[in-house]
Design goal:
about 240 residues, mainly alpha, 3-stranded mixed beta sheet, 3 strands
């Protein structure tokens, strides 16, 4: 559920995931650090927009969903390109094809899920307000995703040193690919539900927003960045009119 208490947590987690795992790209490509820094700035600005101004549920949820789905395929593609480059050389068409294969396959799987028929609608709608349906808690323990990612990274680096970069890279590639498939399967209802919301929203006079939008607006009015974004939005509306 998205409310005033966890809206920052969700988006900043998305940003740090993108910034942290995005390093895998510059590590495999030469002269790409400037592009990486540029994308980090863009993602950071978009994250601020989502936290302090965005009221569209579809846009907000799509951003979080995209970060969750395509993080591991991005790592898989980076590792695949790095491994292929050792055999064919960097920039070789074969390395590029092998490198783009994991994220392409996951994207095609995403499209299949996105356009397939939904058997369960994971959202609850009241007017134009939306919230995710509560899920049954299987395990009472709560784990921090950032902590798990950090521990996994440290464990992975130790594993690479112990078995060698090439073997470790292959194992990491398989693990990331498996995680990608698992995440797609786990989020399949959310993906289809988001498509349903988007189709419905196109026929509505006002877009879908958060169920707790009043609390979110009140919280944003207390944050100075929230007031700044609101002022900038009012300027744009007055200029447009």
């Amino acid at each position: 559920m998205i409310d005033a208490n966890n809206i920052k947590k969700h988006i900043f987690l998305m940003f740090f995931m993108a910034a942290f795992f995005g390093v895998f790209g510059p590590l495999t490509l030469e002269c790409s650090w400037w592009w990486y820094l540029f994308l980090v700035v863009v993602v950071f600005c978009f994250s601020l927009y989502l936290i302090y101004y965005c009221e569209r549920f579809v846009v907000f949820f799509a951003a979080i969903l995209s970060a969750a789905i395509f993080t591991f395929p991005y790592i898989s593609s980076s590792l695949a390109y790095l491994i292929a480059s050792d055999s064919f050389g960097k920039g070789d068409p074969r390395s590029v094809v092998i490198g783009t294969a994991p994220i392409t396959i996951v994207f095609l799987m995403f499209l299949v899920i996105f356009y397939s028929k939904s058997s369960f609608f994971p959202f609850e709608c009241v007017g134009n307000r939306v919230t995710a349906r509560p899920k049954k808690i299987v395990n009472s323990k709560s784990y921090n995703l950032g902590l798990i990612s950090g521990v996994s990274t440290l464990t992975g680096s130790m594993f690479l040193k112990s078995v060698g970069a090439e073997t470790g890279g292959m194992v990491a590639l398989v693990i990331c690919a498996g995680c990608s498939v698992i995440i797609l399967f786990y989020l399949r209802h959310s993906i289809r539900g988001l498509r349903t919301l988007h189709i419905r929203e196109r026929k509505m006079p006002t877009p879908y927003t958060f169920m707790q939008i009043d609390e979110i607006r009140e919280a944003r009015s207390r944050w100075w960045l929230g007031r700044l974004f609101k002022w900038m939005g009012s300027l744009r509306q007055s200029t447009g009119s």
